[in-house]
Amino acid sequence: MPVKSQTHAQELQRWINLPQEHKMYEPQYQELLDAQILRARPKDELVVKVIADELYSLKPQIYTRAPIMYLDFKMSSTQTITRTIPETYSRFFRVFNRTAYIGDLGHDTEAEAHRTLIFSEDGTSTIRIQTKDEEANFVMIAGEPSKKPVVRLVRCNKRGGV
Predict the structure, then answer these.
(1) What is the pTM for the complete model shown?
(2) What is the four-CA torsion angle of 63, 24, 29, 15, rounded to 10 degrees?
(3) Domain boundaries defined on the chain
(4) Distances from the Cα of 97 to the Cα of 61, 83, 103, 139, angstroms
(5) What sequence ranges are listed for the domain Pirin C-terminal (predicted)?
(6) Rounded to the nearest 5 degrees, what angle is found at the Cα of 86, between the Cα atoms of 82 and 92?
(7) pLDDT tens readout for residues 44-87
(8) For residues 146 and 120, what is the distance between their CA atoms, to the nearest angstrom?
(9) How far is CA 35 from its chain centroid?
(10) What percent of the chain is modeled with pLDDT above 70?
């Protein structure tokens, strides 16, 4: 059969560990297609998909029982943006392509493609995100920590390899 079209797909699925009072609620899977995701354009050549949280007066339709931020950034080269995150939130960045520089006023960390940066809970609330010579695409996910152990799931093939 001939190929009609080919597309590069990226998907990131997160499971949220709910607070104890919501543990026995019925599960709610919510799927958003790209066309359904609200977009903020705070600067030229900067697009932020607002998946969960409120940003630039955009409030997405996704429902969360625990407060979380889920933002997808696409920044062209030589851009800088700052984002305030509640001090109590745990946070991480997942870089899909190219390189971004993420940190605060005193220190930047080079975040390369296909890497995840997990931030310490040091009370810093403002994070600076910068691109230099190339564009970058990454997500920022943050939320109230559950203070429970993190379990990482890995899918194995039939022979036991990853």
Answers:
(1) 0.74
(2) 90
(3) 34-142
(4) 27, 20, 18, 11
(5) 70-151
(6) 70
(7) 888 888 888 776 677 777 777 777 888 899 999 999 988 888 88
(8) 15
(9) 18
(10) 75
